[in-house]
Amino acid sequence: MGAVRRFMETHYRHFNARETVAAAQAWEEHLAAGGKMMVTLAGAMSTGELGIILARMIREGKVHAISCTGANLEEDVFNLVAHDEYEIIHDWRALSADDEQALYDRGMNRVTDTCIPEDVMRHLERRLIERWAAACESGERKMPYQFLFDLLQSGDLEPHYQIDPAHSWMLAAAEMGVPVWSPGWEDSTTGNMFAANVLMGNVPHHQCVMSGTEQFADLIEWYRANHGGGDVPSVGFFQIGGGIAGDFAICTVPSIIQDMQEEVPFWGYFAQITDAATSYGGYSGAPPNEKITWGKLEPGTPKFFINSDAMIVAPLIFGYLLGD
């Protein structure tokens, strides 16, 4: 038994701590029974370097699909090639508006305590423009992650790596053939760049990047091929944060059942880590049982709702599963 598992089972006996252990144990049971697992990433998990342990989860076959925001998609690659230029601001709560302006003037974009250098974004932009333009010319159409996978697998970035490539979850996903859907990709730096370069004529048109509904259709096909057909547990759903990354992906099941009139199993496991309070009309803090009414889960689905900081809890759960 690993030290992390032993510590958690010894001390995490009540409240959110108990639920954390229960979620990890149920994930392990789900995989042991032959089920697959989807992880959804909201917030800035990649800038928080969740990739250090998420990459191991992917490479060890404990994660089979990912839905994430466009920011998480690109920020893992930013960290891969510019980690040493990042700046940490320890007393970030004390920053004044003038301090923030000074960071902006130096080309440092802040995410809580971490500043990302804008140079890395421009470093990738040129390489992506080449790939977007080439796809437009050839009539090829891809999802956002596939362009980044192509770039990672080309070897062009290898001389620029500033972290151990074993710590990049995007590299791990590319190696393992794990699909990565990014709903609302236009709400990201690379999505903004893409639109701007179409307007400036550097990319001929928008059609080389598949739309959000096309990504959703692709996810539907993935779920149809991987839900197990009742022979094994259907796909599990581990949600980090809330928002579009989670809601986009979890809507797969009700769309198949209600819109396509096709019977498939509901999601076979559900856990969410969030610091959002349950509120009136909010999604990020909506308790799991609310999803029953939307045809996403059923009463017997193993369900876990952990109110905590995802960058504290997710590595603990992953470490538990990895035997650390």
UniProtKB/TrEMBL annotation:
UniProt entry tagged with the keyword NAD: yes
InterPro entries in the cross-refs: Deoxyhypusine_synthase, Deoxyhypusine_synthase_sf, DHS-like_NAD/FAD-binding_dom
Pfam families: DS
Gene3D superfamilies per the UniProt record, alphabetical: Deoxyhypusine synthase
Entry keywords, A to Z: NAD
Disulfide bond is among the record's keywords: no
Family: Belongs to the deoxyhypusine synthase family.
PANTHER family: DEOXYHYPUSINE SYNTHASE
UniProt protein name: Deoxyhypusine synthase family protein
